[in-house]
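Good morning,

Attaching, inline, the backbone tokens for the sequence recovery test we're adding to the shared suite. The designed sequence is right after.
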């Protein structure tokens, strides 16, 4: 049985789920002025590869109708069935070296076996090495007449500017609710499925704007429930996929400034294997609806700021090895903003006693930093175990005004601690424990004999904390 997202992959421009992309491609094809090098950039599951294959058909079709491919001629059929040796698809993540690009160059200068033009589709092109990009640039500057290149990427900012300047760029994006729903309905109609509106709504939400993810989930439901996909069982099945957590409880904790409870909850979710990226999208959907109820009972202030932080957390998801970190930082930033506006600090609400951190008067000394260093490590650890381990393998050296100079013994530790997201975590920990804003500065130690991590056992413990 062929899975839905492959069985119903768009075959012509009008079938593309993103109509703005379809219109852009159609204008190019009908203009008669065809670029030789394209860049398709956008998130996974947005239709980049499908569009590239459709472009190949339109370039090589023998019997075009109204300027677009017929899907019936020999060239169209061979491309649809992936039997043409003139369509070459390359995974940039696996074939990223200069030798791979040299092979591509050799292939590009060979005449097409049957098609009008050879089409090269390079997926995840941003994964190429610097030398490979340099070799590819020469090919893009003077491409053979019989060749069209389609470079696909989820991360266009990683491409050299010299390469970007030689590509005709088309931006793909995540589908909105209506577009995802339209894509699903196309499959539902073809398969003669009966799916309830509530289940469709859950699929749209859980898909995170990915057409491929949406169709995969529909396939999973079909395999589980058959052609009748409705009722609480189907809804519960999807909720389990999304985590099925109570967003009302988190909203209450945010309103009560209960930072520790939220951070611990996110940590526990990560440890039990919950997909926190999907969970974040669920939060966005939940709080977006709350915007309509601003002013009513149970709706906290600062909602728009919280939503922006949730959206920004998505940018950190690509960089962080810890799935919980982006959401934890969003929580800390939001509650920190609230505390500043209220003229106080974020604290955990206790039934018996509420403790508030009193801002310190005067400067902090190195002796005080050393005395409370263990507490700082404990404050940092919930946000990033690796950062805590790097700090434990270092030592405070000097307090210079509003700067804390920390001596580290390995260049790798220094590089990681100086990364902005890690530096922010440490500085927040210092602020929480010491009651003052200190900027972290790392220096590499010259005294190799004076390392704090001397024994094999200590080094093993640090490595275990960092890498698990």
């Amino acid at each position: 049985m062929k899975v839905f997202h492959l069985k119903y992959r768009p075959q012509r421009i009008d079938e593309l789920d993103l109509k703005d992309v379809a219109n852009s491609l159609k204008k190019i094809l009908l203009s008669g002025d065809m670029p030789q090098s394209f860049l398709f950039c956008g998130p996974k599951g947005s239709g980049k590869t499908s569009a590239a294959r459709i472009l190949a058909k339109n370039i090589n079709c023998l019997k075009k109708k109204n300027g677009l491919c017929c899907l019936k001629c020999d060239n169209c059929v061979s491309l649809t069935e992936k039997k043409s040796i003139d369509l070459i698809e390359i995974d940039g993540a696996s074939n990223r070296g200069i030798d791979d690009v040299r092979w591509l160059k050799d292939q590009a200068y060979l005449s097409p076996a049957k098609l009008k033009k050879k089409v090269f589709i390079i997926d995840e092109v941003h994964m190429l090495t610097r030398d490979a990009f340099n070799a590819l640039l020469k090919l893009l500057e003077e491409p053979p007449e019989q060749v069209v290149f389609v470079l696909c990427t989820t991360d266009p900012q990683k491409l050299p500017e010299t390469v970007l300047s030689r590509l005709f760029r088309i931006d793909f994006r995540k589908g909105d609710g209506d577009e995802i729903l339209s894509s699903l309905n196309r499959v539902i109609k073809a398969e003669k499925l009966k799916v309830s509106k509530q289940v469709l709504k859950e699929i749209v939400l859980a898909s995170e704007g990915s057409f491929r993810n949406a169709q995969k989930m529909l396939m999973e439901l079909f395999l589980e429930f058959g052609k009748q996909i409705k009722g609480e069982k189907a809804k519960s099945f999807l909720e389990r996929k999304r985590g099925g957590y109570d967003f009302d409880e988190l909203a209450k904790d945010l309103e009560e400034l209960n930072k520790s409870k939220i951070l611990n909850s996110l940590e526990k979710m990560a440890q039990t294997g919950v997909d926190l990226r999907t969970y974040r999208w669920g939060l966005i959907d939940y709080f977006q609806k709350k915007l309509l109820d601003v002013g009513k009972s149970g709706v906290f202030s600062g909602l728009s700021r919280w939503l922006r932080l949730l959206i920004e957390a998505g940018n950190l998801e690509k960089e962080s090895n810890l799935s919980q970190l982006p959401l934890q930082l969003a929580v800390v930033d939001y509650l920190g903003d609230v505390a500043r506006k209220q003229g106080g600090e974020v604290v955990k609400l206790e039934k018996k006693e509420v403790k508030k951190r009193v801002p310190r008067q005067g400067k902090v000394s190195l002796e005080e930093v050393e005395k409370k260093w263990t507490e700082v490590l404990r404050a940092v650890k919930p946000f990033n175990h690796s950062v805590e381990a790097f700090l434990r393998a270092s030592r405070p050296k000097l307090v210079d005004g509003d700067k804390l100079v920390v001596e580290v013994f390995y260049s790798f530790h220094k590089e990681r601690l100086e990364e902005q997201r890690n530096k922010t975590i440490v500085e927040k920990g210092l602020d929480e424990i010491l009651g003052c804003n200190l900027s972290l500065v790392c220096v590499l130690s010259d005294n190799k004999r004076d390392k704090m991590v001397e024994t094999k056992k200590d080094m093993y413990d640090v490595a275990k904390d960092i890498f698990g």
